[in-house]
Every structure is written in structure tokens, then in C-alpha cells.
Specification:
Blueprint: E1 7-9, E2 14-16, E3 22-24, H1 27-36, H2 40-55, E4 66-73, H3 81-95, E5 101-105, H4 113-116, E6 134-136, E7 139-143, H5 158-170, E8 177-183, H6 190-198, E9 203-208, H7 212-227, E10 232-238, E11 242-243, E12 250-251, H8 258-266, E13 270-274, H9 278-285, H10 290-293, H11 314-329
Helix pairs in contact: 5-6, 7-8
């Protein structure tokens, strides 16, 4: 078995070789070191470590003209994060027509916003040599999908991706926006850290299905934002239930209330439940988001017609953003 049989167990401080007996690695000395690092010494070490870690962090700088930045994220792909981001941006604008809303797609490898927002073409440049967002449904949009061919894969290493993210954050002329909704890529990698550390964020919304596998990664996403001091506004439970259009029987295909259980564990709110509905998929694929195209449909008129498939989402979310902004500014 070779190296697969060699197991170094740091917790037990022992080395197992070839399935034989464990060889102790000076356990008593390890205990002595632990005692020496207790109390004031341990606190000093933590402070020193924090200083070292903070040296390489960029200084946060607001995006010019943007009042509030809200990121929509997920730990795993395929849970409907981009669909949620698009309809959330439209719902925020519909909820208050006086508010200007933008949508930024920082998923460099798999940009979805151009198709979902029915936008094509390249952004024009302003006199200041900044890219002007493309506009549809009253939402200003910017995406890597506007800068590359639709079918061309983005085969880039990390440094090139970080350079692209920097351009999307700093070289776009947004004008004056009340809200910028950022569609993040799935996961907890370089892009998430770069965005979180470069710009002040009012709050993060975590999207997940009720499935245990998705919830495991959703939890990691929420914990990541907490570690970089980004307020987590709550969870959105997508694909929460399927209702048969003929017999009206409701089936929890991905499980029931998984996001609610996770929210209780993390002491977070569930901002909304979005059903698994054919209209949501069809309108997203055709570039006519359901919040805009079917606000009066049967599945969109529950409690709040303007918020479509987000009857419980936009108003609480909107209030949470305002509360977070006031708390951060005080």
C-alpha cells in the first residue's frame, strides 16, 4: 500500500507505519508546549498571528456611485443561485421604482447573467475609459459573458481570474446605484475572498436546496463570509417543493425544510422559499425572468404580486439590508 499505509495522526501525536504499532512522538513534550502557550502567551500569539495575516489584505474601497452591495452566493453549483440573483435584483427594483439597481456577474468561468437577462454585445467605453453596463428590464448589468464569445471557454489560471475580477469591480461606470446585486461563483475560493476583501459588502444571501449535500456546502459558504466579516442576511431555500400541475399534490423532491434547520443551527433567518416550478426554469432560459414576465401568474400572486416567486423574500430582505447599512454606518 506504500504511502497510503502511513498515517500521521496529529491529534494523538503518533505515527503509524505499514499497519504496525503506533510510535509515540514525544507526547509529554507536546503537553508541555500546550501548557506554555496557555493564558497571556496564547493571547499574544493570537494577536501576532492576526497582525501577520492582515498585512497582505487589500484595503477595502467602495465602488464609486454604489450605495449598497449585496452578494448572492452558494457553496455548491446548480442550486439556482444565478436565478435567485436575477429575480432578486428585479424584485428590489419593482418593490421601489425610485431605487436604481445593478447586477454584477463575477462567475468568470460560467457567466449566466447575459442569457438570463437577454443581453448580448460588448460594453461601450465612457470618456473615462470605463465600461458601461448593458441595460435590460431597468437593470444595469455587467458580466464576463459580455467580454468573451458565448461559446468560448475561459481557460485561465488564478492570476488572470483575479485581474478580471479587479476590472469588473473597478473599471465599470455604474452611475448612481442604490443596490448592486453580485452573482458570485459557487464555492469559497479566490473570487469570493477577493470580492469580500476589496469592497464593503452590506450583506450576503446564501442560496441552497433543502438537500443535505447542498446544505453542507451552504454552511461552509455562510461560515466563510462570517470569517471575513461580511454580514450574512440569511438563507434562501430554492427548489423547496414541487406541486403537480394536475392533481396539486406537493412533493419535497430535495427534502423538506433542510434550509430552515440549517438556519436555526447558524442563528440565521430563512428569507424565502422558492418552489421547483416549470415557469421559473422556462423564463430563465428564454431571458425573461419570471419576476418581470409573469408577475400576475397564479404562482406569482402569493401575498405580494410584485415579488413574484419571492413572496417572503424581498420585503424582509430589503429591511435587513437597510438595518445592516445603518448598523455599519453608525
Amino acid at each position: 500500500m506504500g504511502c497510503w499505509q502511513r498515517l500521521l495522526t496529529f491529534g494523538a501525536v503518533s505515527l503509524r507505519v505499514g499497519g504496525g504499532a503506533s510510535v509515540p512522538l514525544g507526547g509529554s513534550r507536546v503537553l508541555v508546549c500546550r501548557r506554555q502557550l496557555s493564558g497571556a502567551d496564547s493571547e499574544t500569539l493570537k494577536q501576532r498571528r492576526a497582525q501577520i495575516m492582515s498585512r497582505g489584505l487589500p484595503k477595502q474601497k467602495p465602488i464609486e456611485g454604489v450605495k449598497q452591495v449585496i452578494v448572492v452566493a452558494s457553496g455548491k453549483g446548480g442550486v439556482g443561485k444565478s436565478t435567485t440573483a436575477v429575480n432578486l435584483a428585479l424584485a428590489l427594483a419593482a418593490n421601489d421604482s425610485s431605487k436604481a439597481v445593478g447586477l454584477l456577474d463575477v462567475d468568470v468561468y460560467g457567466p449566466s447573467i447575459p442569457k438570463m437577462m437577454n443581453l448580448k454585445g460588448n460594453p461601450e467605453l465612457s470618456q473615462s475609459n470605463l465600461m458601461r453596463p448593458l441595460l435590460n428590464y431597468g437593470i444595469a448589468c455587467m458580466s464576463m459573458g459580455f467580454l468573451v464569445e458565448e461559446t468560448a471557454p475561459v481557460v485561465w489560471r488564478g492570476l488572470m481570474v483575479m485581474s478580471a475580477i479587479e476590472k469588473l469591480l473597478r473599471q465599470v461606470d455604474w452611475g448612481q446605484l442604490d443596490y448592486l446585486v453580485v452573482d458570485m461563483p459557487p464555492g469559497t475560493g479566490d473570487v469570493q475572498l477577493s470580492v469580500s476583501q476589496n469592497i464593503p459588502i452590506s450583506g450576503a444571501v446564501i442560496v441552497s436546496t433543502p438537500q443535505d449535500i447542498a446544505l453542507m456546502d451552504a454552511r461552509k459558504g455562510a461560515e466563510m463570509f462570517r470569517k471575513v466579516h461580511v454580514p450574512v442576511l440569511g438563507l434562501v431555500q430554492n427548489m423547496s417543493v414541487f406541486q403537480c400541475p394536475k392533481c396539486k399534490h406537493r412533493t419535497h423532491i430535495f427534502g423538506a425544510d433542510g434550509a430552515r434547520r440549517l438556519a436555526r443551527t447558524l442563528d440565521l433567518d430563512v428569507l424565502g422559499d422558492i418552489p421547483l416550478h416549470l415557469n421559473i426554469r422556462e423564463t430563465s432560459d428564454t431571458g425573461q425572468p419570471i419576476v418581470f414576465s409573469q408577475p400576475e401568474s397564479d404562482e406569482c400572486t402569493q401575498q405580494h404580486p410584485l415579488t413574484a416567486e419571492f413572496p417572503h423574500l424581498t420585503q424582509p430582505f430589503h429591511s435587513s439590508v437597510q438595518e445592516t447599512a445603518l448598523a455599519n454606518s453608525s
